[in-house]
What we know:
alpha/beta; Peroxisomal Thiolase, Chain A, domain 1
Amino acid sequence: MTNAAITGWGTCMPPAVLTNADLATFLDTDDAWITSRTGMKERCVSHVPALELATVAARRAIACAGLEPGDIDLILYGSCSNGEQVPNSASGVQAALGATRAAAMDINTACTSFLYSLSTASAMIRTGVVRRAVVIGVELISPYMDWSNRNVAVLFGDGCAAVVLEAAESDEGLLGERLGCDAEGRASLRVRGIGCVYANRDVVLGDTLWDFDGQEIFRRAVRGMSQASAAVLEQCGVTPDQIDLVVPHQANLRIIEAVVGRTGISMDKVMLTVQRYGNMSAATVPVALTEAVETGRVRPGALVLMPAFGAGLTFCAHLVRWGSRVTPLAVSEAALSPSPRTALEMVNDIRARRASTSARSAAGLQADV
Ligand code: UT7
């Protein structure tokens, strides 16, 4: 049987870091609250568009697999913060890479977008539609954040990672997955105005409205991720003690602890990045997976469980068997330029733009009346 082996991996993290202390300069919050309620200390703010993050991560993953962009048959772009809807984002990555043979598709299931993309690419490889795919998880949330809303502004960060999947006859890659959607809870997480790069009078960066019921999402996330984890373990005939590493969606340390506890796995088997990167939505799982490989936490043949949830409320759990190689075949020289501004300066720019837009639309409304 043909499987889809993970043969390349790479991250692209923006260099500018926003600390809890930075957030407390303009929000009624503090490090003690954020740390105790979420586990988060820092998150990254990108100075470049998401397509640039995605292109650098994809180049690193392709080099890691010992391939060239021209070898790739399919690019999947998992994200919910695409700068444009038409044309799609995956085509932008195809163009930037020069991966001219590749089909290009966007997938949006919010924070689970990378894992749903992993399912899609693996299925297309198993059925012989394509042989080599790049699967990207990327999110650029900072421009769309409502930085005046402390319920959400402390939680999210920007980031990206990508993996390469290749057809293989060995017993590795995605062994099984459970995908689901708890749509009764869909009103608990809605962002109006996300996903437009155009700064004109109709759509302005940062002019978003977040509906966010944290406690409701928390409850449903724990249930969905735990049930999906139990289902995929049963489906694959694997017991919790056989799991070598858990790479969960990183929305909140307390959610991770609850899910892992219910699944019967100890926290020392969990890869955590939530302290340093916050919730990067679709990027959290691939970034944590790549860092786990790069820091030696993924051994050859390891069984890796990846549970996640996101707006929708989509949820899933994926079980992967790693292959024999945990080191890159080659290293790409692709890199971001240094950030010319600090994270706090960039956030304050977005806040100022939003304030001036609100003032303009209030004046416009008064004139209309
Ligand atoms: O990946 C998908 C998106 N991620 C999520 O949806 C995350 C799911 N939810 C959560 O992680 C948690 O529910 C939160 C971290 C969002 C909130 O934690 P919580 O323990 O559920 O806190 P809470 O909402 O019950 O708020 C407790 C208190 C409230 O004050 P009162 O009413 O007790 O006086 C909030 O107003 O904390 C207050 N609060 C804050 N205080 C300081 C809320 N946000 C903040 C803040 N700083 N940033």
